[in-house]
Amino acid sequence: MAARMVTRPRVRHDFTVVAMDTLVNVQVVSDQPASLVEATVRRGLEWFDLVERVCTRFDPRSEVMQLIDRVGRATKVSPLLFEVVTFALSLAEQTDGAFDPTVGAAMEQLGFDTHYRTGEKVHSDVAPGPTSFHDVAIDRRHRAVTLRRRLVLDLNAVSKGLAIDLAARELEAYPDFFIEAGGDVCVRGHSAAGEPWHVGIQHPRADGLLTRTLQQTRAAICTSGDYERRAPNANGSGHILDGRTRQAVSDLASVTVVAPTAMAADGLSTAAMVLGRERGLRFLEEQGVGGLLVAPDGSSVSVNL
Amino acid sequence: MHRGLVALSASAVAAVYLAGFVRTSAVDASLGQTAAAVQAPAARAIAIAAPLPTATSATVGYKDGTYTGQGSSRRGNVWVSVDVQSGRIARVTITKSTLQYPVRDIAGLPDEVVQRQSSRVDTVSRATYSSQAFRDAVQQALSRAG
Q: How far is it, in rounded angstroms, from Cα A134 to Cα B34?
């Protein structure tokens, strides 16, 4: 006689932590005991701490900031830092420098310089200069990174996405969950209601309202916008800089990208913000991802959505 | 010919995941304090210990005990519980957070009228918001521990 399955109800398990200066929310829908779910989610969330410790420019002891003292020398780095830098440089190349991860010192100057955990001001003593992604060289064979001049790498546009993807891999034994980190979302499977996850997209000019709702069962949905983080030292201009001009972008109010990985969705949404409505749309189309680009007047264009 | 960025990101994630928590020695030396213990799960909002504001805990002496605080932002509310032991913050736990999901959708495009009938959303994609509400909640809790 076949053993009778003990069936537990599928229930929501919600988790919230703070990481990378934002809230990370995880919801798992499962019939597994809460203790098992929690142990897995904990392992997943540890990736956020690791990614932050390696990639943050707000801590002079982070691996990426230690590169500043090794200008001109090839430095063997962790696989994590190597992959993040490599991806950021590819994104820079493929946008002809519109996206540029070497804007870190310019970001400090705009006032994005306070460590959220300690409240301490961080200054790298690197003058914001005419740096570009060409000043960073990588060597895959030796897993090495070389800074050709003193510069601060700002990896924020891709590192949170990577952390989400790593956490999602840790959770992959569970078919139904979402991870939301400060507005970047990754969904798998179905909600407790048995439906695809309903992911709203915040309207950039109508607080608390959505410009659209997507239904997804396996995707990352990341949004970059000008409406959350404003520069303390520049009359509240946005936090996304054009890599070529070092000026805040203004053509678009938000860009949402739907992609298989949060790393791509995160990076490509930032890049499209810089590229602007026409070029950004074309770029997202070329990359084969879904995109919704909303202009400051609320009008929008989309591709593959 | 460029390799697509989606494919590049997928290999990057796989490479990092497979490498696991391998770090260079330079990084090991710089590892900060990691998140502390985990609270037993509650019914709905399960809380995990949050990163500690290390600077304040190192410099200010508080009265031992457990204090609660709340912080608010446009995103919603966060409630925290701060455990003080031997005058220092031993643990900060998010006991509850409510993100205010919108109940109305904006009519962006005509074909979204159908979607508006189901206004329920599970989560919202938006530009990155800061953890200021969390910090406010911790500060409020600490103001009671002074």
A: 35
Residue of B5, B52, B53 lying closest to A287 (CB–CB):
B5
pLDDT digits (tens, 9 = 90+) for A50-107: 999 999 998 889 999 999 999 999 999 999 999 999 999 999 999 999 999 998 777 7
**Helices A79-94 and A262-275 sit at what angle, rounded to 10 degrees?**
30
Dist. CA A54–CA A81, nearest whole Å: 7
Chain position carrying tokens 């997943």: A44
ipTM of predicted complex? 0.91
Interface of B with A in 99-118 (CB under 8 A): 99-102, 104-106, 108-109, 112, 115, 118
Query: Min CA distance, B87 vs chain A (Å)?
Result: 18
Backbone angles phi, psi at A79, to 5 degrees: -55, -35
Please tell me which of the candidates B2, B99, B125 has its beta carbon nearest to residue A222. Answer: B125
Q: What is the DSSP letter of A189?
A: S
User: Which candidate, A284, A280, A293, A200, places its Cα nearest to that of A253?
Assistant: A293
pTM of the prediction? 0.83
Q: pLDDT digits over A187-203, tens only?
A: 999 999 999 999 999 88
3-state secondary structure of B66: strand
